[in-house]
Amino acid sequence: MSDATIHHKAQRGRLFVLSGPSGVGKSTVLGLVRAQLPALHYSISATTRQPRAGERDGVHYHFVDTDTFACLVQAGEMLEHAQFAGNFYGTPRTEVESRLDAGQDVLLEIEVQGARQVRASGGVGSEAILLFLAPPSFEELARRLTGRGTEDVATRTARLDAARAELAAEPEFDHTVVNTDVAVATSALVDLMSQ
């Protein structure tokens, strides 16, 4: 084992937090980022929302009921948690911290509220690198959400209202990547996480 390898293992991993409004293309871009950065650990969030078609427990999310989620929050087992569009989302703390301690970089894909909580949490969160994935325009974001067809009108309206507030939070982030083109956005995120 070389000295460089020993040094790398002793070094703490970096925590990246990616946020952006619903419909901006986070899942698509992150799938490509993960393919290009296979050593990056992608943290799976817990949620109380129902799975969408094709989603699997433990792969896309940890799907839990509201009581279980509340118990996890009460026990301090969530690095962050938020309510969004009537459902709860959160990041299990233990896995993130153990990966960082082992020297592995970790990526969280969470909402703006959660990114704020991570940054304010101190400890692991105080060193987090916050990345914001933005749409080219609000109109384009609305078109993407409408075209997705996975939500009813009330949920879509709530997501658009939340998106306006999330877009206003962009200055709180360390870096912004505009998703005009998936390949270009992916390349920009890979570059940021490879520095």
From TrEMBL:
Ligand binding (ATP): 20-27
GO cellular component, one term: cytosol
Entry annotated with the keyword Aminoacyl-tRNA synthetase: no
InterPro entries assigned: GK/Ca_channel_bsu (IPR008145), Guanylate_kin-like_dom (IPR008144), Guanylate_kinase (IPR017665), Guanylate_kinase_CS (IPR020590), P-loop_NTPase (IPR027417)
Enzyme nomenclature, EC number: 2.7.4.8
Enzyme class: transferase
Subcellular location: Cytoplasm
Family, as annotated: Belongs to the guanylate kinase family.
Physiological role: Essential for recycling GMP and indirectly, cGMP.
Protein name: Guanylate kinase
The organism of origin for this protein: Nakamurella antarctica
